[in-house]
Amino acid sequence: MAAQNKSPLNFKLVLLGEGAVGKSSLVLRFVRGQFFDYQESTIGAAFLTQTVALNDTTVKFEIWDTAGQERYHSLAPMYYRGAAAAIVVYDITSTDSFARAKSWVRELQRQGNPNIVIALAGNKSDLASKRKVEPDEARQYAEENNIMFMETSAKTASNVNELFVQIARKLPKQQQQDKPSGSANIKVNEPKQDAKANNCSGSC
Q1: Where are the domains of the chain?
Q2: Which residue in 77, 45, 75 sits closest to 63, CA to CA?
Q3: Is-above-0.90 flag for pTM?
Q4: Beta strands across the sheet bearing 58-66
Q5: Where is the composition biased (Polar residues) (predicted)?
Q6: Is-contact 172 163, C-beta < 8 A?
Q7: Which pLDDT score, from 0 to 100, does residue 36 have?
Q8: What pLDDT digit, counting tens, does each position of 160-195 carry?
Q9: Strand 117-123 versus strand 148-151 pairing type
């Protein structure tokens, strides 16, 4: 098992969901441990990386944080194609965002990698007093669709790292390593700007 720690396994992970549900805030909290009350909307998609050290291996997430606005929907397949994992985010205070999350799950199941690990994240759990989507409803939906479910708060950091760790544990432990790295420790990289994507730290 120790031999597996020589270099991380690289996995593409995409975040999908309606605008302003907190996708970028979740990524920023996970990668840099930061949260800002106001974020600009993501244009296209932002690309960041972060590694997670498990007991038997290290997983490097290559994270695509996609824009939630409807006008960017047609670009989504470019980002989720080939993804090993996807986090579909909704806002627990918005039933519309939950309905939109369900449509993203259907799209991933129909067009994505058949082995993709899908996690449903009910974000903004710190706003429980304004809750419109009950956790039992989301959990039942997740169970029926054989996907993960967790409520998170980018603001308080509740369950953010846990979400990514649980995803990492569900990914295969043997995979072609495209970009090996010698570090097996938690490592934070600054956001990179892709040629086809603009960077943003927004909650979109």
Answers
A1: 2-170
A2: 45
A3: no
A4: 45-53, 58-66, 9-17, 85-91, 117-123, 148-151
A5: 173-186
A6: no
A7: 84
A8: 999 999 999 999 986 543 433 333 333 433 333 333
A9: parallel
